[in-house]
Amino acid sequence: MRLLALETATLAGGAALLDDGRLVGEIRLDIALTHSERLMAVVDQLLQDCGCEVQSLDALAVSIGPGSFTGLRVGAATAKGLALALEVEVAPVPTLDALAAILPFADAPVCPLLDARKGEVYCSLYRWGATGMERQWDYLALPPEEAAARLEAPVIVLGDGVAACRPYLARLGEGLREAGPVHSVPSPAVVGALGHAILAAGGGIPAERLAPLYLRPSEAELKARRA
Q: What's the pTM?
C-alpha cells in the first residue's frame, strides 16, 4: 500500500511517503508560512523525488488535531481533495497520538503537551504495553497548571507546550523527564506509520467524513456566538 501522509497541525509539518509501511521519503516545512498551494507544492516535490505518480497512491493519512486551527484546515482540505480525486480512503490520525508515538516503547508514561494558546495546552497520556501504545486520557485542552496536576511520577513529557507547564511540573522532581526539543512536534513519517496501522485495521474513512479535531471553538465561532 502506497500512502501519502500530511502533518499540518503544528508549526513544523510536512509530508511523507510510505510504501507498505516503509518510509520512502519525507519533507518538512514551516506551516506558519504555509497555505494550501505551498503544501501541494511540497507534495508534488516529494512524489517527484521518490519517483512516484500521484495516481499510484492507495490511501492518505492526515494529522487531524488538536493543533493550529489554520494548519488543520489546510491539511484536512488538502487530504480531502486528493482523496476525492483519487477515490481512496483517508486515515485520520490524532496529533497527540502522533507526538507520543515518537517515543516507541518508552519505559514510563508519555504525556504530549502542545501549546493551545489562550492560556491552555492540548494533552493526553499514553503507556506502552506488549500490544503497543495505549491512550489513558481523553484528548484535553487545559490550563498548564491543571494539566501538570494530573501527572504523577515517573512521566516523560514532550511537545511545545512543555515550557508553559514546567513551573507546575517541578513537584515531580527526578520522576520527571523531558524528551527535548527534537521531539517537540510530530513528524509526517510517524503520522504515516500510524495511518498505515489504522488502514490495516479497517479504520480508514471516506474523504467526505474527514473532519479536524479542534477540541474547542475557533475565535471566529466564539465571535459569532457573542454577536
A: 0.94
